[in-house]
Amino acid sequence: METREMRYFVAVAEELHFGRAAQRLAIAQPPLSRAIQQLERRLGVVLLHRTARAIALTEAGAVLLREARTALDAVEAAERRTRRAAADQPGVVLATKAGASSELLSKLLHAYAAEPGAVAVEVMLCGPGQPENLLRNGRADVALLHRPYDTTAGFDTEDLHTEQQVVVLPAGHPLANRKHVPLAEVNTLTNPPLPRWPGRDGSYPDGPGPQVRDHTQLFQLIALGLACAVVPESLRTQLRDDHAVVPVPDAPAVTTVIAWPPHSRSKAVADLVHTATRL
What we know:
Blueprint: H1 3-15, H2 18-25, H3 29-43, E1 48-50, E2 55-57, H4 59-85, E3 91-97, H5 102-113, E4 120-126, H6 130-136, E5 142-147, E6 156-163, E7 165-170, H7 183-187, H8 215-223, E8 229-232, E9 243-247, E10 254-260, H9 267-278
Parallel strand pairs: 3-4, 3-5
Antiparallel strand pairs: 1-2, 5-10, 6-10, 7-8, 7-9
């Protein structure tokens, strides 16, 4: 398959509408339809169920959508890393969630800056799920990720820190005076409900909780009594007097890892990883 065909198919699969996909790709609809039909013939599979009113992915189409996204990310990553390698000023781009692992990040940057031959580190602070995506598409050279929330498949990683989780509630909540709360009880809370985080495609799952993009927004909603959330214990440092914190012993532990592409040959990335593992 050509990358052009994969881009065409991904657009149609995400829009589930040939007209919108053609507009997104800035091409006419007839050649787009022909390209998808030719792709189906060459693969010998049906990728889309078409009716007069709707388009739906077949099982084969869903597989191709997942694989095509990964392949296109790899192509874009190769382009970006190649250009960055040719830059006059060497540097390394580190992606991490805003507000997460703040103390660890500060120690890492300080320790790395003291290393002989250290280069400039550009820190990209972003929302949940984005550091992983930035690392996969080549916009970042290395990232701090958090299992089990982030997927580390396809990366080389080193574990840096493991911690337990707590539930953050509005001050005065009926559960605030408990010594601990089971995760099952937290998951059934409706007053206030758990928040909804965006998925990889930017869409939010259905549910009663408010949509959130980052921890600053989340903690303000909790203080207002509009949400509660299970978060790593280290985020206690960002909380205020109008928050209450209760341990959730059976919530999965969160492990902060430093991750990088397995084919990376960057000395700066290697030095940064070695510094992180020594902390």
